[in-house]
Design brief:
heterodimer; A: alpha/beta; 7 helices; globular; disordered C terminus; B: 517 residues; six-stranded mixed beta sheet; five-stranded mixed beta sheet; 15 strands
Chain lengths: 254, 517
């Protein structure tokens, strides 16, 4: 067994909103972005905090094994899962080898801001990545995340080539990243990937976000439907484009 | 009870504007039956009944039909019926008309049938000539008739474990009509039931809070292939049923106990198990030997029911409070579902009850070796401050896996059914696979019955049956108030049901809430 430790913000033994089926979700501490709309900003600092814990892999595997009879899989989220990518890789390898957990699918929930070597490595231990694309337009991406998106776009392309792009998630912030032009460009860009990924349209919510984010309005179900319709109109496959109105967005349970 | 009180009761039923004609007839029959003295029991048994330690669930003083009957519909459809002057059905319309005719002549405690049979398997051979559109339309008409002719939330249809066109159509119809009748169970066998059918079932659960799931391999091991799920998730032999259901209130039994929890199962529990069994025996003998149901029913004469396929149900409730009280006596404290030592005590009590019931001969229960079947009873609407069956106290459920691990060990001991409510967050509507994961995980853990409840659904589960939330919302409106007051005038407040306060065509007739017993 392994005593390698990861800095964990929280763990949820049962989630219906972090990938297919009932999933165990491990939220790692630390993120490379500083999104204004972040729903769990306490997980952003890349160091130990009052709410985070160093947990050995043994301990995490044992916890997952207990829940395993009820699970489709495990999702590692954050923070940003790839900040501790070596820990994630090792955890996934242990999960794959343990008979109690080998049947579980291993996914990560990521902002896509990672080097190619990270994906090349994780491709050997994970079934797929669910990547958030905050905006295709670099300037809008700057407004939302305070970072450039070149690496995110490269990651999405690389994951598609590796056959590990489980889905791309678009978080709709009304009036900011859902203009008709942006949605059309995003749809065209995603449709050209090979293979084109499933796309999930989700809405920005105030819940959990910092006060600065409240200047933006929440996305209504109508906003999401309109965005999905626009995406489909510009080339996304309607069978692979889903609106998720009620779901949380990677928020640890309270 | 004096003659004047009886006259008052009859008058209150006759004058009750909230009852339909048929509901009135049913209530009047109950009042007439209760003019007779109940079957004779010992003073100790009568006292336990009086103090509600034992409860006969308002079955009536003079049982003249079995509580639950499960006619052999396969046989009926194969041979036709002399009594009903019907030949064996030849096509789909014949088959549904045939079944409706039989249902209309099946007695049970509710005055309606409690079992419609394995409707998908019964109708599948007749569906071959119909395309999907025709099948849906015809099955939908059948479903609407079930609800309109047998408006009782306990009337129960079974589906599965095998997949079929009628199975799928039935789920689609159920999602379409949004009825509380039929109450619905899907038999689930991991080796037979396809994953995709489970997903379809979960789609139906999310929309209309049905079907209930039953662990088919576990049922077959206990009751054989020929079993059905009726009423509030009661599993019983087909071609037979249950004479009676009497329940023991474990909370009250615990309050009769003095000393340490360790002596509860050896000292106090056996005494009350015997008193409950005594009442069951007296009621069964009345039904079989005095009212002689099995000597004159057409269902028996045509081989659709037979006495040797009958059993009786021994119900338990209030395990959560029982455990809590015993641990208070011990001075340790602890709560079932939350503390390991409390769970261990709960499992020990259930196992002891199972052993005692299995050791106590019960007349006319040949279907189950001359013994009653233990049942975790889903409660009455009128129960106050007591947890149904062997559930963890409602509103205080622990984390999902902890909850299932606490209740699962009990399931082996309840061959005639145990319903533990599994509440799912509404986000499951976008991820039906998650509900399948939890259902299959629960069964792998040894759970016999899995009842899902999805937050914010259209339907509300009262005990084991459903009412529509939209109907409940009428309670606050002038129309609802009028009915509420009439119910207050007619019955006692203590017995008032949630669903009595709403104007309704569909009622649940399993129990008669009215006073007079």
């Amino acid at each position: 067994m392994s005593s390698t430790r990861g800095l964990v913000a929280d763990a949820v033994p049962s989630s219906y909103v972090d990938g297919p089926g009932n999933r165990y979700v491990l939220f790692l501490q630390g993120c490379t972005f500083n999104c204004v709309a972040c729903h769990n900003p306490q997980t952003i600092p890349r160091h130990s905090t009052a709410t985070s814990h160093w947990r050995p892999i043994d301990d995490v595997v044992a916890d997952i094994a207990e829940a395993a009879p009820f699970l489709s899989g495990v999702t590692v989220s954050g923070g940003e899962a790839t900040v501790q990518w070596q820990f994630v890789h090792e955890l996934f390898r242990w999960l794959a080898e343990d008979p109690a957990t080998a049947h579980l699918t291993r996914l990560i929930d990521t902002n896509g801001d990672a080097e190619p070597v990270v994906w090349d490595t994780l491709a050997g231990s994970m079934h797929g990545a669910m990547v958030d694309l905050k905006a295709l337009d670099p300037e809008v991406h700057q407004v939302l995340t305070h970072r450039d998106n070149a690496r995110v776009l490269a990651s999405i392309r690389q994951l598609a080539e590796l056959g590990r792009l489980h889905e791309v998630r678009l978080l709709v912030v009304p009036g900011i990243n859902d203009t008709p032009e942006q949605l059309a460009a995003t749809a065209r860009w995603l449709a050209e990937l090979d293979p084109a990924p499933p796309v999930v349209v989700q809405g920005f919510r105030h819940h959990g976000a910092r006060p600065a984010a409240r200047r933006w309005s929440e996305a209504t179900p109508e906003d999401l439907d309109a965005a999905a319709a626009r995406l489909i109109e510009h080339g996304l496959d309607p069978r692979q484009t889903v609106v998720r109105a009620g779901g949380r967005v990677g928020v640890p349970a309270e | 009870v004096g003659l004047e009180a009886q006259r008052h009761l009859v008058r209150s039923i006759v004058d009750d504007p909230s009852l339909t004609y048929r509901q009135r007839v049913h209530a009047l029959a109950g009042a007439a039956e209760n003019l007779l003295d109940p079957p004779v029991v010992s003073d100790a048994c009568a006292a336990a009944l009086d103090k509600h330690v034992i409860c006969d669930l308002f079955e009536g003083n003079a049982p003249y039909r079995p509580r639950y009957t499960l006619p052999d519909y396969d046989r009926a459809m194969a041979q036709g019926s002399r009594f009903l002057e019907l030949s064996a059905p030849a096509d789909f319309d014949d088959a549904t008309a045939f079944l409706l005719s039989v249902y209309g002549n099946v007695p049970s405690i509710t005055g309606y049938p409690v079992w419609f049979g394995e409707v998908d398997r019964l109708l599948e051979p007749f569906a071959a000539d119909l395309d999907d559109t025709e099948l849906f339309a015809r099955l939908r008409r059948f479903w609407v008739l079930l609800d309109r002719l047998f408006p009782d939330g306990f009337a129960h249809a079974n589906l599965g474990p095998a997949d079929g066109r009628v199975t799928r159509a039935a789920l689609a119809v159920h999602r379409d009509v949004h009825q509380v009748v039929p109450n619905l169970t899907l038999k689930v066998d991991p080796a037979v039931t396809p994953d995709d059918l489970l997903l379809d079932a979960m789609r139906t659960v999310v929309e209309v809070a049905q079907p209930h799931l039953v662990n088919h391999p576990m049922m077959v091991a206990d009751l054989g292939e020929r079993y059905g799920v009726v009423s509030c998730y009661n599993s019983l032999p087909v071609g037979g049923g249950s004479h009676t259901l009497v329940r023991l209130n474990l909370k009250e039994v615990a309050h009769q106990h003095a000393g340490a929890s360790a002596t509860f199962t050896t000292h106090t529990l056996p005494r009350y198990i015997e008193l409950t069994a005594e009442l069951m025996e007296a009621r069964i003998r009345h039904l079989v030997e005095q009212a002689r149901f099995f000597d004159h029913s057409w269902l028996v004469q045509e081989g659709l029911l037979s006495l040797d396929r009958f059993t009786a149900m021994f119900g338990l409730i209030g395990l959560a409070e029982c455990v809590e009280h015993l641990l208070t006596l011990d001075g340790t404290g602890g709560r079932y579902g939350h503390d390991d030592h409390a769970d261990a005590l709960a499992h020990q009590i259930v196992a002891a009850a199972a052993e005692l019931v299995a050791a106590r001969p019960m007349p006319y229960c040949e279907a189950t070796g001359g013994r009653a079947l233990l049942h975790s009873q889903a409660g009455l609407d009128s129960d106050l401050d007591i947890t149904a069956g062997t559930r963890v106290a409602a509103g205080a459920e622990p984390q999902l896996y902890r909850h299932l691990q606490a209740v699962a060990p009990n399931h082996a001991h309840f061959p005639s059914g145990v319903s533990d409510i599994v509440r799912l967050d509404e986000t499951v509507a976008d991820n039906l696979r998650a509900a399948v994961d939890i259902a299959t995980g629960a069964m792998r853990l040894g759970m016999r019955d899995v009842t899902f409840e999805v937050a914010n659904g259209e339907f509300v589960r009262i005990t084991g049956y459903l009412v529509r939330r939209s109907d409940l919302e009428h309670v606050g409106e002038p129309e609802g108030v009028r009915h509420s007051s009439t119910v207050l005038g007619a019955g006692s407040l203590a017995n008032m049901h949630l669903d009595d306060r709403i104007p309704q065509r569909v009622r649940t007739h399993e129990l008669d809430p009215r006073p007079g017993r």
